[in-house]
Amino acid sequence: MISTNEGDQIVKFLHTADWHIGRRLHGFDLTEEQQNAFQQIEQIALDEQVDGIVIAGDLYDRGAPAETAVAQLNGMLEQLNLKDHFPIYAISGNHDSATRLATGSPWFKDTQFYLNTKIAQAFEPVELPDTQLFLLPYFEPFEVQQYFDDDSIQHLDQAIVPIVAKMKTHFDPAKKHVLVAHFFAAGSATTDSETRLTVGGLGAIPTGSLTDFDYVALGHLHGRDALTTDAVPARYSGSPVKFSMSEANQQKGVWIVDTATEPVSWTFRPITPIRDVQQLTASFEDLLDPEQFQELNFDDFFGIVLTDTQPIPNVLAQLRERYPNIVTLGRQDGFQTQVAYQGESGQQMRQMNPMTLLADFYEQVAQEPLTKQQQQWASDALKQANEEEK
Amino acid sequence: MISTNEGDQIVKFLHTADWHIGRRLHGFDLTEEQQNAFQQIEQIALDEQVDGIVIAGDLYDRGAPAETAVAQLNGMLEQLNLKDHFPIYAISGNHDSATRLATGSPWFKDTQFYLNTKIAQAFEPVELPDTQLFLLPYFEPFEVQQYFDDDSIQHLDQAIVPIVAKMKTHFDPAKKHVLVAHFFAAGSATTDSETRLTVGGLGAIPTGSLTDFDYVALGHLHGRDALTTDAVPARYSGSPVKFSMSEANQQKGVWIVDTATEPVSWTFRPITPIRDVQQLTASFEDLLDPEQFQELNFDDFFGIVLTDTQPIPNVLAQLRERYPNIVTLGRQDGFQTQVAYQGESGQQMRQMNPMTLLADFYEQVAQEPLTKQQQQWASDALKQANEEEK
């Protein structure tokens, strides 16, 4: 399948991104889900006989991934490149440590595994017989400022201009031009599980700056529908696995991009999860009624929204007897509560004022605020408890 | 220089180990020292025209090294293997995360960079025309227990027996046999900067179990003289840089091993530090006397032992005007004090009883314990300070 230097046409590649290896779903381990999604990607690539696999950043979920995550991603890349002999065209994303991810990359090129982690590498395209692939890793404006030695570059929309201009000086007019990148494209729709994004002009790349490319394979946003404009041939592949409740309704999958057509065309190939992530809104009674919801896979990850308004003692434990993988639990018109353990949330919670915590909790459960009298009782009880502790 | 498969003789290799990239010396950055030592190793390899470089474990100082350490080691390995075209024969040590260090290793073999991190890999030797190289990574007894499915393997001295036996089934009698390993060989001398070692039978490899090899290139202990027996052809190269005061008197360097001689022979090539690590024992007055110690490189890392017995106010600040890189400061017959910042030590110190801390400090400085009266004064002052703080 490695055919780059043999003169035959490179027409079809698979576009994926945002694997986030090592990520957890509200405390739940996703290793098995991610491994299974990977195997489906591999199978799609084999079935479609693609000529290469594009991974548009965020291979890892964090800069210093756990050993288990390192072992998992190493195994995936080895499988695709060394065993299946697919060329790989990859970049680092904002979740990756560019430095750590670059480990071994100078050795990878011999087997057509291209992994760019520095801006400077983006201007030397991978030359395929009919296509030039520009692999632009995730970047911050200051890196572009330094690279071009231009203090006037302050924001992403400014940074992309000289980048594209420099790429164009390397354009071979006889070939198609594909950009692989990891950023927020203006006009995209976001979900909860991408890192907090500055939506708007300064923190986004205007899609208008991408019109010189025949296809832009994007990573960063987790939904394939994040960008649906027909004005530019750019798409997010989305993540292969659902990483938050806000992604519950997304169809995960990969794009198969055909560069031989005029213009370049792409079709979607879905990925089916082992355990889906879904929202379930119902009353407590219905949820535990054996006659109800029989069609569900109870091992799925559920975000449950209760329509009840009365307090229900021990609600989570009771629900978990039927739905072991409850990810969030909330009340209709109330806010969602994350129910699984999360280190930071726990810590944040411990730093909150106990009275605030109580008031929030009561309001969420009872759907009405504490009365003045209740507040007084609670405040007195707390005072007494504090004094006893001393 | 890559000549393994071309049939010519592979006769000479450079043996180094324990680079500990990312290590600090009592809080002082060693990046520059380590980079310089690396360049000397590279130059020795070029001068000697060695046919390969053995790195016997502990490439990193810790399992999850900092990004700067990752960038530094990646650059070194790229330089030796991809730019200078030296074959590399390396193993993971106890300081390395085998999993993290293995990143990229399946791609390395194409350029004769062999990096073993799992026991199973140790039994497939690198076949050179006249030598078999067995690369045995650092291991714990339980891994050997699992590998051989033998519960009776409880200790290192037991674990080494089936390992060597299995290697011998792969011996080509027409070739020399070299073992690269990372462990404590019985009879070796230790220094402070290796991780705490169990000296003695159970936690050590008996040198008698290594007699089947023509040379054993060891890592783990930081002094080249840690093992000096002539009974077995085994040597520690030692670390290229001094990593603790206990290594002050060691001559750092590498072995050049010649497998063409009968028996295999090895010669030492020294490495000269930019800033040496040395012990200095003198009186405070002499240390600051411009007429004294003029031959010293004052930028060296000094462990200073004062012969004075009287308290000296502000002693460290005064000494640092002449010796900016004081690593430890102590009194003759007193214990050494680490003077640079060290996270753990600082934390431990903060958890100590202030009276204990004071008593220790006074005794160290004044060479006599606090009197009952002094203890009472200190205790009263502390009590008052605590109350004021409240």
Automatic annotation (TrEMBL), chains A, B:
<dbReference type="InterPro" id="IPR029052">
    <property type="entry name" value="Metallo-depent_PP-like"/>
</dbReference>
<dbReference type="GO" id="GO:0008408">
    <property type="term" value="F:3'-5' exonuclease activity"/>
</dbReference>
<dbReference type="GO" id="GO:0004519">
    <property type="term" value="F:endonuclease activity"/>
</dbReference>
<comment type="subunit">
    <text>Heterodimer of SbcC and SbcD.</text>
</comment>
<dbReference type="InterPro" id="IPR041796">
    <property type="entry name" value="Mre11_N"/>
</dbReference>
<protein>
    <recommendedName>
        <fullName>Nuclease SbcCD subunit D</fullName>
    </recommendedName>
</protein>
<feature type="domain" description="Nuclease SbcCD subunit D C-terminal">
    <location>
        <begin position="275"/>
        <end position="365"/>
    </location>
</feature>
<keyword id="KW-0378">Hydrolase</keyword>
<dbReference type="InterPro" id="IPR026843">
    <property type="entry name" value="SbcD_C"/>
</dbReference>
<keyword id="KW-0269">Exonuclease</keyword>
<comment type="function">
    <text>SbcCD cleaves DNA hairpin structures. These structures can inhibit DNA replication and are intermediates in certain DNA recombination reactions. The complex acts as a 3'-&gt;5' double strand exonuclease that can open hairpins. It also has a 5' single-strand endonuclease activity.</text>
</comment>
<keyword id="KW-0235">DNA replication</keyword>
<dbReference type="GO" id="GO:0006310">
    <property type="term" value="P:DNA recombination"/>
</dbReference>
<keyword id="KW-0255">Endonuclease</keyword>
<comment type="similarity">
    <text>Belongs to the SbcD family.</text>
</comment>
<keyword id="KW-0233">DNA recombination</keyword>
<feature type="domain" description="Calcineurin-like phosphoesterase">
    <location>
        <begin position="12"/>
        <end position="222"/>
    </location>
</feature>
<keyword id="KW-0540">Nuclease</keyword>
<dbReference type="GO" id="GO:0006260">
    <property type="term" value="P:DNA replication"/>
</dbReference>
<dbReference type="Pfam" id="PF00149">
    <property type="entry name" value="Metallophos"/>
</dbReference>
<dbReference type="InterPro" id="IPR050535">
    <property type="entry name" value="DNA_Repair-Maintenance_Comp"/>
</dbReference>
<dbReference type="InterPro" id="IPR004843">
    <property type="entry name" value="Calcineurin-like_PHP"/>
</dbReference>
<dbReference type="Pfam" id="PF12320">
    <property type="entry name" value="SbcD_C"/>
</dbReference>
<dbReference type="InterPro" id="IPR004593">
    <property type="entry name" value="SbcD"/>
</dbReference>
